[in-house]
Amino acid sequence: MPNEPLTISFIQSLDTIDAEDWNACAGLDNPFVSHAFLASLERSGSVGDDTGWLPYHMVIRSGDQDKEPTPIRACMPLYVKSHSYGEYVFDHGWADAFERAGGSYYPKLQASIPFTPATGPRLLVHDGTLPEQRPLLQAALLDGLRQITDKLGSSSAHVTFLENEEAVLAESQGFLLRHDQQFHWQNADFETFDDFLDALSSRKRKQIRKERRTVADSDIEIELISGDSIKHHHWDSFYQFYVDTGARKWGQPYLTRAFFDEIGQTMSERIVLIMCSREGRAIAGALNFVGKNTLYGRQWGCIEDHPCLHFEACYYQAIEYAIANGLKTLEAGAQGPHKLARGYVPVQTTSAHYIANPSFRDAVDHYLTQERSGVSAEIEYLTKRTPFKKSG
Description:
The protein has 392 residues and is of the alpha+beta class. Helix content is 37%, strand content 24%. It has helices at residues 19-26, 35-43, 92-100, 134-152, 164-172, 193-198, 202-216, 232-249, 257-266, 309-324, 358-383, and strands at residues 6-11, 53-55, 57-62, 72-76, 79-81, 108-111, 124-125, 156-160, 176-186, 220-226, 271-278, 281-290, 294-302, 329-331, 344-355. The strands form two sheets. The protein has an eleven-stranded mixed β-sheet. Helix 2 runs antiparallel to helix 9 (257-266), helix 7 packs across helix 10 (309-324) and helix 8 (232-249) crosses helix 9. The longest helix is centred in the last third of the chain and has 26 residues, at 358-383. It is globular and about 65 Å long. The termini are far apart. 40% of the residues are buried.
């Protein structure tokens, strides 16, 4: 490959690429980089011209593409952004500072999964690639990202929630690293939910049992639905929950109703929908995606408030599912220090940033050095305060 000519192109619709070709690079471990998930965002209008998320995916192929196109060697989910919403790595302060200095921060480039603060691969390489060639192709993706940022005259390019090995490579290529934290649940080979509870301190164990009992003693019924069992009416109800809760949290919800139909048709086998009903009426729900080793909790919504129902549907039911299915990790999205008391532990997340303007880059670099130190100290502090029994 070192002497092999590569061709980089940019596409504005995943429907122009064969799903198997893309997935040969995306792999099967992470549902959010799959062709099905990303194409569902596009087909449903959740991303596109009017949303501020313009698809501009990078594709690398071998050889001369004036001839018959060759299989994809590497690719990157990429978007041209006209704002900073739906990213969960907040750079509004950077944008304000750059604009005050007379620059135009937008449009910028975003290598990420829209509306999805979940760590996963961003530098996708064909699964048949030799191990020694993988970093070369990943480096080509990063180099292509820098070049297209400069060519378009964009202020910056951002690769968010990327994996650690990718972050190390990005830093070696001049990207600035930014750290944040989330709370993830880790499966210590538990066989039952009670095994998990037994690992907690007595006070936290009692608290969780009390919360679960509050829901169990109510008239609320909870059902886990996946695959072909998820019907149109389930999505109708869940979208109602999503819109109602989203409007109270951040205003206009990002995902359209059509998105849920799309994922229901194309990837239902990777979905676990936790639905809560009372007196025959659906009142709340939690949407989860299943990876190879991880359960990803994504959206929660409700149209009725009930004590402890959020904890039960989003955390405890998900933990039970992860244990029963041998999943090692449960990611429940961004924010939420309250997760610590329920067995989730602080975990570092990483993003990588290319800043085109040298002076602005230096300022951001200085800021990130201080921020990383603060994040590291907070993770260390919280790790000492997890609810698990203290050894020794």
